[in-house]
Amino acid sequence: MNANKRQKGSALPKKIAVLMGGPGSERDVSLATGQGVSRALRSLGAEVAEIDVRDENFQLPSDVDLAFLTIHGTFGAQRFRSRSSLSRHAKDRQWAL
Fold it and tell me: What residue spans define the domains of the chain?
């Protein structure tokens, strides 16, 4: 097997939340990026929850194991600069920054 290809479903978290959107001018770009990431993760066998983040008051499903951030622009860069920025949404989870 090619070292660059991952076997379908191998070593993926059970459920991945793809955070996309945001309130800024790059919202449409972020939504498109998030949808592309979601498709790619699903093609690898992951269960994906697409989360449209319109402001800081979004909710993560309780069964999410990992968050993949695709928010572009100032909101994404400032709000999600570190794992601690997401700590109020969920504890003891992994974050893909």
Answer: 27-56+63-96
